[in-house]
Design goal:
mainly alpha
């Protein structure tokens, strides 16, 4: 049992090691774009025949729109890279193709990192099973480049679409309607619920459902939930950064560096800065983020904070009603997340200097 637990953790950490650079890259690029181009830079260029048809990258707005687009694309592939990394750790190179495809599908369907992580293990063990098949000698060379990627992507992909995506869509629709129905009650309640949802799966289905519920209420001129959505997404990355400051010895060198990049991401409302920590330690990270985000959302909305803008993070605070209370709520919620996680996080295991095997292309195609 202990060995099996160690193997699972090793696979997860491998996926996280590949995901961290793309999260940092995407987050920093998006933060720079919003800082220099404005909080709404993502909508500054209208799409034509392609998203880039009307782009002039030699203008100030066009340049930063392009930078933001690069950051957004990087973030879109974060879950796919993690899924492929975990599947690779389990099954080797044959796990990369289905991992990338199904991980990206998980991201696009809003199943988030939890869906991608679950599918990574299904993919890995399914690929290992295919490897045991005895095929005629003439088609053994086709196994790694045709049979395994095609069959594993087809089977595991349809498992995801048939078993997880359909019921997930139904459940999230009901959940969204419930959140909207809370608007008739105390403001602090809906603020706390939306905040907790934003901190739950950090870009996954619950997070996106709460976000869409806030957007729906915003479209009707009810802007308090929009403030809860923003603060609920900002609190987790800032809270993890504070936890790293409070208890540095509980964080590895890589975690400390990742936590540093989480801070500007949090300020820019990029909740995905927490994903490397949540994927590695979901039992402790997720409750810490939920509690802090719930408190922040309850304080902000309860004290009358409203935001007509649905995105932008710290850059839209001056346009909010009661901006001082928003900043107070953000500080309190982030501190709560940071203190809780610093208290319950386990110290890192001794770091090793083992270098990961370099990925190389070695296609063994035999035609007889």
């Amino acid at each position: 049992m202990a060995r099996q637990k160690f193997e699972i953790k090793k696979h997860v950490m491998t996926g996280i090691s590949y995901m961290i650079p793309i999260i940092v890259c995407g987050g920093i690029l998006s933060a720079l774009a919003k800082g220099f181009g404005g909080y709404d830079i993502g909508s500054a260029v209208e799409a034509g025949a392609t998203p880039f048809t009307n782009l002039n990258p030699f203008t100030w707005i066009g340049f930063w729109w392009g930078v933001n687009k690069l950051g957004s694309i990087a973030m879109d592939f974060a879950v796919a890279v993690m899924t492929a990394g975990v599947a690779y750790s389990i099954a080797g190179r044959p796990g990369i193709v289905p991992g990338v495809v199904i991980g990206y599908c998980s991201s696009q369907s809003k199943a988030g990192f939890l869906g991608g992580l679950l599918m990574a293990f299904i993919i890995g063990y399914f690929v290992n099973w295919i490897k045991t098949w005895k095929l005629p000698k003439w088609c053994e060379g086709l196994k790694p480049v045709m049979f395994i990627p095609v069959l594993s992507t087809l089977v595991c992909g349809m498992i995801f679409l048939c078993v997880f995506s359909i019921p997930l869509a139904y459940i999230m629709n009901v959940f969204q309607q419930w959140i909207i129905s809370l608007n008739g009650g105390a403001k602090a309640v809906i603020g706390g619920v939306i905040g907790a949802c934003m901190g739950f799966d950090l870009g996954g289905p619950v997070n996106k459902t709460a976000s869409m519920a806030a957007n729906a209420l915003g479209a009707d001129g009810i802007y308090g939930p929009m403030a809860a959505k923003i603060i609920g997404g900002m609190t987790p990355p800032i809270g993890i950064f504070l936890a790293a400051l409070i208890k540095k010895k509980k964080f590895s060198k890589v975690e400390l560096e990742t936590a540093k990049t989480a801070f500007p991401m949090g300020l820019c409302f990029i909740t995905e800065g927490v994903l490397p920590f949540a994927a590695a330690d979901p039992v402790r990270v997720i409750p810490s983020c939920m509690i802090g985000s719930a408190i922040a959302g309850a304080i902000a909305v309860g004290m009358g904070c409203e935001s007509a803008a649905g995105h932008g993070g710290i850059f839209v605070v001056p346009m909010m009603t009661q901006p001082i209370w928003f900043l107070v709520a953000l500080a309190v919620g982030s501190a709560v997340t940071g203190i809780i996680y610093a208290a319950i996080k386990k110290p890192p295991q001794e770091e090793t200097d083992e270098k990961e095997e370099e990925l190389d292309i070695d296609l063994d195609i035999q035609i007889q």
